Amino acid sequence: MTKSASGLRGRRVLLPLVGMLALGLVVAGVVVALYSRLTEEAGRPSRTRAEPAELVPPGSPAPRRSSRPNIVMVLADDMRSDDLRWMPHVRRLLDDQGLDFRNSFSPNPLCAPARASLLTGQYSQNTGVFSVSEPHGFARFDDRRTIGTSLNEAGYNTLFLGKYLNGYGTDASKATGRVSFRYVPPGWTEWAGAVNRPPHSGYSSGGTYSYYHVILNRNGYIDDSHRGQYQTPLEGRIASRLVERYHRSSKPFFLYWAPIAPHFGLPREKDDPVHVRWPDGRHEVLKTPARPPSLRGRFDRRIPRASGLPADGGPAERDVRDKPRPIRSLPELDRSERLGVRSLTRQRAESLYALDLQVARLVRTLRRTGEYRDTVVMFTSDNGYFLGEHRVRQGKIKPHEPSLRVPFLMAGPGVPHGRRYDPVTTEDVTATILDLADARPPRPPDGTSVLPSVPGDRGWRVPVLTEGLEGERVFRRARRQPAPGFDDPRTTIGIRTPRWKYVRYVDGDGELYDLDHDPNELRSHFGDPRYAHVQRELARLWRAYEDCAGASCRVAMPTDLQRDPAADRTATQHQERGVRARYGYWR
Question: Structural domain boundaries of the chain?
Fold first, then answer.
């Protein structure tokens, strides 16, 4: 742990804020409690780490607490970075009172791979999970050592709620070799995981993606008592009850809540958009989340078009000849498709507002129980989502900004209000949680804690590795022999630096973008002689990181590709203005 990070251990109170906080609380008689989390750094005697303890019955005095904070992680599903516009409570409770990291990325922007990375702190090439389905899905995931086991061993009550990995419930667990319907991964004090129904399970309906009929695995027992209840407020109630139950323990708690909003899910509704018809005659359903009737139409006036379509009403992308093969084949959106993707944008916003209300509820519970001042709250997503950009009607996986970018907000004791521009990846979030908990990583970490960036940005020094696996239908015309470097399942590997993005595809295609001048990725310079020297340098960087593991993923790139804090902030803000100019918004 670095010196800067250790300054946030315990209550993680930044020293410049101590005087102000103490002054505000001295009348209330809690100065001693406020400083107890700082005694280790200040050289004063500190409380010893609490031993595992049973829950204290209601009405009993609250026990002396561990010297480390509670940690709450809320992980949305398929939420774009700009979707924060539809979550006013999250913005007020976290963004306005904590840190908003403006360069936050999901390196493998797909549900199961991203979730495996969050649980382990490793890129997909090291977790073995590349897809939502076999042979590279849940059954490949060895979850005998995860962030859950690490925090539990470090003395935390570990609480899981919501979606685990795609395939959980139906696919076999690597740890047991048996169907995972009643499987509880090791390391969790409380487990309430949403499950899919395997064949012959005896359950005829419901599952993870049924917004009105979620089935939960509650510590190994199947709970099918929630038919007809909208999933998001149901899980919001469970999250609050978990806090109420565990806040009196002498051990801190780690609550990892993974709701499914705004991921598409059942049931189909009367106002859902129509199918997309492709030139070859195929039909594709525009997949939407279900929403409570009370929220339908809430954002209709604020959403006149899909988030990924230009504000001037022009084409999604006039010329896609520079794009990889799967995008080059996409036609422009016709009028009905534009209306359909607009409806998709609206329905996603409505489902996110339902989640927004439940995050506010959870924060109120933290305040009511007295835990809020001892809790670090984080909010992020497993991946972004296309809503018309580059003619992509819906989806993710591809290494473009709408798919890669996710929100990351953090608030709590010692976390100031403001923005940070240092890069954050899914793997970095894992390292940050472990750092806060003073816990040992479950595996050799690929990411780095962002706690040193809390006092102030340190600059962009390490590139973001991007990767993905798309199915044979997407790359059905791929060359017989894969391009060099593709001796693994990935169909795309890329490098994202402060200015440049360099991507290689399994069929030999590639992309190269100068994001300072083209933040919307409208013109690739891959193979352009004028950018040959840049491409050669990025190709060398690509080869250095494509199969990185552990410390090699954290090696700084050449100095000419790095940016100091001031330059990175200025460039990021410039890129944000470019997005706003095209789409009319940024967050």
Answer: 465-583
